[in-house]
Amino acid sequence: MADTEHTHQPPATAEEDTPSPPPPTSLEPEPPLASVEVESLAQPEEHHSTVVTTVVEKEGPLTQPPPEPTLLAAEQVSVTVPDKEPQGVSTESEKPKPVEVKKIPESLVSFKEESNKVSDLSDSEGKALEELKFLVQEGIKNQTFTIAKTQEAPSVDLPQEVFIWGVPLMKDDRSDVILLKFLRARDFKVKESFGMLKNTILWRKEFNIEELVDENLGDDLEKVVFMDGHDKEGHPVCYNVYGEFQNKELYNKTFGDEEKRNKFLRWRIQFLEKSIRKLDFNPGGINTIFQVSDLKNSPGPGKRELRLATRQALQLLQDNYPEFVAKQVFINVPWWYLAFYTMISPFMTQRTKSKFVFTGPSKTAETLYKYVSPEQVPVQYGGLSVDYCECNPEFSFNDPATEIIVKPATKQTVEIIVNEKCIIVWELRVLGWEVTYSAEYVPNADSGYTINIQKLRKMTAADEPVVSSSFKIVELGKILLTIDNPTSKKKKLLYRFKDKPYSD
């Protein structure tokens, strides 16, 4: 915790530092304070605090003309966290609030995952599913999915049970979900779908997938591909960080020769296989993955070894893992990748292209927030997510964050009003910083002292991305977290807090 200072009187709030606008010349009543919707998830009910966020525009130079009568010098946003006891309802809550219209990335073509429930299928789709199920049953009976045996090991006449991704085919409703993946990959053409399924099952046996899952292939690539959190619809999120291959030692260790490239291929398939087996193949369950590909510092197309390994991996994944991508977001996209995509785009189906989203470095966090909540986004991509460990014991994926836009040349004050003795813990970040941050505690009692928790501190882009702190409440009052944005650009503020009990 930062050094604290005591003063006899609480400092003036941000509202007091801003002059009021001149009275309107019209006889019409003055409009109420404009309300701004804040993207927020309700805090757990055991919290005993109320959050009030206040936006105040900084005073402009005296040479500027006075504001128009209808403009407001301040906006106030209130977000209330329920207490244990019900609170009175303010009449202000009855006033309608404007609905914020959110824009999706320009490169996004609308795509919605289809239902895997048989009752939701069209007549033609339901018929195709039944025909495919019949072919699969016949295939199991006729051992179509069995690799031909040598003379030393003659084939067994009894039909063998067929598994795929840990699910036995034709045993329960999960088979419908799996078969629908192959049907959709082949536009519900039954014979082509059956051929793809057959080839996949035979390839899995030849590749010894069941043994591969338990094989120890090391952890050298754990920073290249990793799972972290879920998107807003519940899909697990997989991050692919190609910039890690700028490390020459890692690059040579992974792609130096054909044997190493084959090991990389086995590792990539093993990673995907383990991830898929954690999905829910029941109808209505989450059985696809949200993919994020970070192309920052990615080796260009001139890296022949990487290009060969990637091409081979993509071919195997396309042939044997159909319809497992819910959305594919490319972040930190360089110019050469967009040029490459433009070349191959005509050869892709509209269904595939509709899952793609591209964004440059300046829009990475903004784009991810459209699909993934900030507390689920890794810190390096603009979120608050870090590994839950002894070094970060306070917050996890289950602790929602609030997003607020700090307008240019404005102050943003977050008030945490405390209703009982406790310890308040909070963390916040402003994307890109270049703001000043301070924190103070103001007691309710007139005779109390304002405590400076964090002196005014200028935060730059080079500072730590997330600031965490805590304060023990011994008398009721409020904590003020103030962000001053002196720049000409709007800033995104993220914060979350929780209270913990303590005993004297």
UniProtKB/TrEMBL annotation:
<dbReference type="Pfam" id="PF00650">
    <property type="entry name" value="CRAL_TRIO"/>
</dbReference>
<dbReference type="GO" id="GO:0008289">
    <property type="term" value="F:lipid binding"/>
</dbReference>
<comment type="similarity">
    <text>Belongs to the patellin family.</text>
</comment>
<dbReference type="InterPro" id="IPR011074">
    <property type="entry name" value="CRAL/TRIO_N_dom"/>
</dbReference>
<keyword id="KW-0446">Lipid-binding</keyword>
<dbReference type="InterPro" id="IPR036273">
    <property type="entry name" value="CRAL/TRIO_N_dom_sf"/>
</dbReference>
<keyword id="KW-0963">Cytoplasm</keyword>
<dbReference type="Pfam" id="PF25099">
    <property type="entry name" value="GOLD_PATL1_C"/>
</dbReference>
<dbReference type="Pfam" id="PF03765">
    <property type="entry name" value="CRAL_TRIO_N"/>
</dbReference>
<dbReference type="InterPro" id="IPR044834">
    <property type="entry name" value="PATL"/>
</dbReference>
<dbReference type="GO" id="GO:0016020">
    <property type="term" value="C:membrane"/>
</dbReference>
<dbReference type="GO" id="GO:0051301">
    <property type="term" value="P:cell division"/>
</dbReference>
<dbReference type="InterPro" id="IPR056794">
    <property type="entry name" value="PATL1-6_C_GOLD"/>
</dbReference>
<dbReference type="GO" id="GO:0005737">
    <property type="term" value="C:cytoplasm"/>
</dbReference>
<feature type="domain" description="GOLD">
    <location>
        <begin position="365"/>
        <end position="499"/>
    </location>
</feature>
<dbReference type="InterPro" id="IPR001251">
    <property type="entry name" value="CRAL-TRIO_dom"/>
</dbReference>
<feature type="compositionally biased region" description="Basic and acidic residues">
    <location>
        <begin position="82"/>
        <end position="99"/>
    </location>
</feature>
<feature type="region of interest" description="Disordered">
    <location>
        <begin position="1"/>
        <end position="99"/>
    </location>
</feature>
<keyword id="KW-0131">Cell cycle</keyword>
<dbReference type="InterPro" id="IPR036865">
    <property type="entry name" value="CRAL-TRIO_dom_sf"/>
</dbReference>
<feature type="domain" description="CRAL-TRIO">
    <location>
        <begin position="214"/>
        <end position="389"/>
    </location>
</feature>
<keyword id="KW-0813">Transport</keyword>
<dbReference type="InterPro" id="IPR009038">
    <property type="entry name" value="GOLD_dom"/>
</dbReference>
<keyword id="KW-0132">Cell division</keyword>
<keyword id="KW-0472">Membrane</keyword>
<protein>
    <recommendedName>
        <fullName>Patellin-3</fullName>
    </recommendedName>
</protein>
<feature type="compositionally biased region" description="Pro residues">
    <location>
        <begin position="19"/>
        <end position="32"/>
    </location>
</feature>
